[in-house]
Amino acid sequence: MTATDRFDIPPPSGIHLRATEPRDAAGLTLLSNQASFRWGTLRKPFQSEEATRQWLTSGGENRLLLLALEGETVVASGGLHRFEGRRQHAAELGMGVASAWQRRGIGRALLAALLDSAFNWLQIRRVELHVYIDNHSAIALYERFGFEREGHLLGDGFRDGAYVDVFAMAKHIDPSVGSRPA
């Protein structure tokens, strides 16, 4: 597989993707505070608009944040956070789609845009993520894009009053890089 395989996926009709801006704090806060959206992420409940604004403006050069919008309504968000030092070749990915907008191809287009940016523009060779083991649709999406399960983390997340297991997954642009136990 080459870096450009499967990354040229346009968003569905009526949806556009773009980088976040400080003015997106209100829309991103509304999205983040939806219980159904937050269920699949590591975000805390009841995030303030000011906290979102600070988060939007604090990432620096090591972060890429994208939104999927219908008109001016934020329906999904995703981002990459590049690690530093000896891990500068790797980045952590996080994303989510509002439940009313799921299964329409928005997550697929957003993930493709993030991976295209990572592998074809930012010189990232490895993208990592954590996903709750009961988030079957997200796991299926990640696996369709070539992510592999690298670990099962017991009780790694806390959601709805209980600890939840998480899969650690990653995608390498060149899967032959690195070593694997025999």
How does this structure look, described?
The chain has a domain of 115 residues: Gcn5-related N-acetyltransferase (GNAT) (Aminopeptidase), CATH 3.40.630. The protein is 25% helix and 34% strand. It has five helices and seven strands, in the order βαααβββαβαββ. A seven-stranded mixed sheet has the order 1-2-3-4-5-7-6, with helices on both faces. A hairpin with a 2-residue loop joins strand 2 and strand 3. Helix 1 packs across helix 3. GO terms for molecular function: acyltransferase activity, transferring groups other than amino-acyl groups. This is N-acetyltransferase domain-containing protein.
Key features of this structure:
182 residues, alpha+beta, 7-stranded mixed beta sheet, Aminopeptidase
- Let me know the CATH homologous superfamily of the domain at 15-129: Gcn5-related N-acetyltransferase (GNAT)
% residues in beta strands: 25-35%
Shape: globular
Residue runs with pLDDT of under 50 for 5 or more positions? none
> Class of the domain at 15-129 in CATH?
Alpha Beta
- Secondary structure tally, helices: 5
Structure described in brief:
This protein is α+β, with helices and mostly antiparallel strands. It has a domain at 15-129: Aminopeptidase (3-Layer(aba) Sandwich).
